[in-house]
Design goal:
The structure holds two protein chains of two kinds. Chain A is of the alpha+beta class. Chain A folds into two domains: 2-79, Pleckstrin-homology domain (PH domain)/Phosphotyrosine-binding domain (PTB) (PH-domain like), CATH 2.30.29.30; 127-308 and 327-340, no CATH class. Helix content of chain A is 54%, strand content 16%. Chain A is built from twelve helices and eleven strands. Chain A has helices at residues 70-76, 81-91, 93-125, 128-145, 154-170, 202-207, 211-226, 229-248, 260-288, 294-306, 318-323, 329-337, and strands at residues 2-8, 16-23, 26-31, 34-39, 44-45, 54-57, 63-66, 148-149, 177-182, 190-193, 197-201. The N and C termini of chain A lie far apart (83 Å). Chain B contains eleven helices and 15 strands. The relative contact order of chain B is 0.13. In chain B, helix 7 packs antiparallel against helix 8. A ten-stranded antiparallel barrel of chain B has the order 6-7-8-9-10-11-12-13-14-15, surrounded by five helices. Chain B has a three-stranded antiparallel beta sheet with strand order 2-1-5, with no helix packed on it. Chain B folds into four domains: 2-48; 63-120 and 320-383, no CATH class; 124-234 and 387-408, no CATH class; 242-318. Helices cover 54% and strands 16% of the residues of chain B. The chains are: A alpha+beta, B alpha+beta. At the A-B interface, strand 1, strand 2, helix 2, helix 3 and helix 4 of A face helix 1, helix 2, strand 8, helix 3 and helix 9 of B.
């Protein structure tokens, strides 16, 4: 078997036109400077890729370039058949489309099931001590920025604490703690931090009209604690971030701008899923206590109103709903009513 | 027997079996630059010698004294689509572990399709070496993401540490990439000049805010000089002849352009604000602002960014010599602006499916606007010994998305 090739000797960049011959398990190279030969098993051939020329790497550092064909295939023998499978896969348009469909399916499945499942496992596996440290760190961070000390009277705080303890006990969630803060910037709000720490703002306490409303919101926040939502959210965003980074790793810097939108959409989807989950826990709790979900609906509406800028046209637009971290209030109210009917 | 056809316009060459070549006088269209020319005995050279003539000739040494040899890119979007989609799928299915293999296939595609003087570049990195670096980088990435989620202090400390290791990463990454790039069986190499790397990538960036950014063009100059002057091909070093003042001129022109874009956006705000005040009801200024930003400010700043990068790129390459050979880079700002804008639109509109097309299109433009002004031949370089180097710098830099601009 014979082939012509360009030969570079690995010592200088001079190009030689040579004749390659395979004979008796050896490769013979004959050029103007003479002839050399190497046993076939010392010769390595570059993996096939697209329609590129193949490079034959010789043991002394030299190499030959020649088009893909019977000669090269004889040289490479049976080494690394996985590379040939890859090459066939990449080169067939039909198989490439199969790969495309598989990719879309795997990404969807991963975002929908894989990432949340892994995040949940990781969140529940995290030692409670670590989570508590994280919770304290987060609270310290908020104290330094958004929170000021609460001005709620001690008696009112004690009342709320009693309700909180009751909900905790019946939801079988130990290790919850309640903290009171005031936040003019945040307004009426209740939030769950890592380690089972629930914070309510004075502004929120001022907004509630009765004990049932308070119970409903506290149950919702304890729902977040029960589901380890904060840690899950952090793990999920990290996982999704890695998926998106893997997908868009080929992008050049400017087109990478387009890659931030899917990441944001995925993050808000996770966040809204968790709000729904916490709503469901709260609603189930209220029903189990023989209470109505009506106070929950009332407080949701009040919270919604309190966070809107006073304006003539304040109906939620499709866009803001899409990018919001909470489901639309209307949607949450409808969900609240459904199982009750 | 085969024949080489050379395009008289761009010097693109194609080898064809002689029986498939049409008769002289037939019109041919160059697949590279679309130039139409008549086939003649000048454009078609027979290469294969008759069977019994002395067949083996080393490259002829009597090349013209001074000739411009263009770089060429032969890859197609169709071929890269296959490589890209299989890479993407396997990376996701293996949770990223496949990425070193994917990277080698991708790099080999782009390197080997880039040719100068009818020889391609070769990327020789071993995926297993890359994998070790990848594992280290992924571990650091997870630690960093987790840590900075809870403690802003951790984020700051990590950021400072990162600035301190960045120059080291730059050197290691350049070492790895140059030593794994070969042309005509000779490897490139890089001199690990850590002291100079720290000056260009750590101390000068730290000084930049103190000098209100006045030092930034000087910093860019030091960085480019560092990357070029420490690189070598075989035993032959690259040299860098650009002056600092050229970098300052480009920076000033870019700032002027940025001011113009800012003024245009600002005055448009004024016009729309005025209109909004007059038209009551549904036409509120607020509704237009995002669109205004999208339509004017973003392409405007993209233009400034591309202007700066392109001019710096041309300046750097045109001032770079390899031995006595000079590089010529002729990128045009308007072409690149259009390429980036249309690529971004195409990628967004196709949900990412046109990424391979965009990447090949950009590579073809960049490579084919580069040329080498040869003094003599490319045959007189000699090899140097190049020890193996680990891939930690290259992979950590990759995971944290530091783009260390490559010389090839």
């Amino acid at each position: 078997m014979e082939a012509r090739a360009n030969y570079y000797n690995g010592k200088s960049s001079v190009r030689h036109s040579v004749l390659l011959t395979i004979r008796d398990d050896s490769l013979y190279l004959s050029g103007p400077q003479g002839q050399c030969s190497w046993p076939l098993d010392t010769i390595r051939v570059s993996a096939p890729l697209a329609s590129l020329d193949r490079t034959v790497y010789l043991p002394d550092g030299g190499n030959c370039e020649l088009p893909d064909g019977a000669f090269v295939r004889h040289l490479e023998g049976n080494e690394d058949s996985s590379q040939r499978v890859l090459h066939r896969w990449e080169n067939s348009l039909k198989l490439a489309f199969v790969a495309l469909l598989l990719t879309v399916g795997v990404v969807w499945g991963f975002i929908q099931y894989g990432v949340p499942l892994m995040a949940e496992t990781a969140a529940h596996a995290l030692p409670p001590a670590t989570e508590e440290v994280l919770g304290r760190e987060s609270l310290a961070l908020l104290d330094g920025s958004l929170f000021v000390p609460s001005t709620l009277p001690e008696t009112r705080q004690a009342e709320i604490q009693t309700i909180f303890d009751r909900v905790c006990a019946s939801l079988e969630e130990q290790g919850c703690a309640l903290a009171f803060r005031s936040s003019p910037q945040m307004g009426a709000n209740a939030l769950a931090l890592p380690g089972g720490l629930v914070v309510v703002t004075d502004q929120f306490v001022a907004l509630v009209d009765n004990e049932q409303e308070l119970t409903a919101v506290l149950a919702h926040e304890i729902g977040h604690v029960k589901g380890r939502h904060i840690m899950r959210r952090i793990f999920q965003n990290m996982g999704a971030g890695l998926v998106v980074a893997t997908l868009t790793g080929d992008l050049t810097s400017v087109s990478a701008l387009a890659a931030t939108l899917p990441a944001v959409l995925v993050e808000t989807k996770f966040s809204r899923d968790m709000e729904r989950e916490a709503d469901d826990i709260a609603a189930a709790y209220l029903r189990s206590q023989g209470l109505s979900t009506a106070p929950f609906i009332a407080i949701l509406e009040k919270l919604h109103r309190s966070h809107q800028n006073p304006g003539p046209d304040s109906s939620e637009s499709g866009w803001s709903d899409y990018l919001s971290t909470h489901p639309g209030t209307q949607e949450r109210i409808v969900r609240m009513q459904e199982p009750a009917e | 027997m085969s024949v080489i056809i050379r395009c008289p316009q761009c010097q693109f060459t194609k080898t064809m079996p002689s029986e498939r070549v049409p008769a002289a006088g037939t019109r041919a269209k160059c697949p590279q630059c679309s130039h139409v020319f008549l086939l003649s005995t000048d454009t078609a050279h027979q290469t294969a010698a008759p069977p019994n003539a002395p067949p083996l000739q080393p490259e002829s040494g009597k090349t013209p004294a001074d000739r411009l040899v263009p770089f060429q890119f032969h890859g197609t979007a169709r071929e890269y689509f296959g490589i890209w989609i299989v890479n993407t799928l396997l990376k996701i299915v293996t949770l990223g572990i496949y990425s070193p293999w994917a990277k080698v296939r991708k790099r080999r595609f782009f390197y080997a399709n880039s040719r100068v003087d009818n020889t391609s570049f070769d990327y020789l990195a071993d995926p297993l070496v890359l994998l070790k670096g990848w594992v280290l980088g992924a571990g650091l990435f997870i630690a960093y993401t987790l840590g900075s989620n809870f403690s802003p202090l951790f984020g700051n400390v990590a950021g400072l540490l990162f600035l301190l290791v960045l120059p080291w990463l730059v050197v290691r990454s350049r070492l790895f990439n140059t030593r794994n790039t070969a042309y005509r069986s000779l490897r490139f190499n890089f001199k690990p000049a850590y002291r100079e790397a720290y000056a260009a990538y750590a101390w000068l960036p730290l000084l930049a805010p103190l000098t209100l950014g006045m030092i930034v063009p000087y910093m860019y100059w030091r960085q480019k000089r560092f990357l070029v002057e420490n690189a070598r091909f075989g035993q032959t070093p690259f040299s860098f002849g650009a002056g600092v003042s050229d970098f300052y001129i480009i920076a000033m022109k870019s700032s002027g352009l940025a001011l113009l874009v800012f003024a245009a956006t600002f005055s448009l705000f004024g016009v729309f604000g005025g209109l909004g005040a007059m038209a009551a009801g549904p036409f509120q200024v607020g509704t237009f602002l995002p669109f205004l930003l999208l339509l004017v400010a973003m392409p405007g700043y993209l233009l400034v960014y591309i202007y700066f990068q392109t001019r710096i790129f041309n300046l750097t390459f045109n001032a770079t010599r390899l031995g006595s050979h000079r590089f010529v880079s002729r990128l045009r700002v308007r072409d690149l602006f259009w390429l980036f804008l249309s690529n971004a639109l195409a990628i967004t509109a196709s949900c990412g499916l046109l990424i391979p097309w965009a990447a090949v299109r950009l590579a073809r433009y960049r490579v084919s606007h580069l040329a080498l002004n040869l003094q003599g031949s490319l045959g007189d370089f000699l090899a140097a010994s190049t020890p193996e180097v680990d891939a930690a710098g290259e992979e950590i830099g990759d995971i944290f998305d530091i783009d260390i601009e490559i010389a090839f």
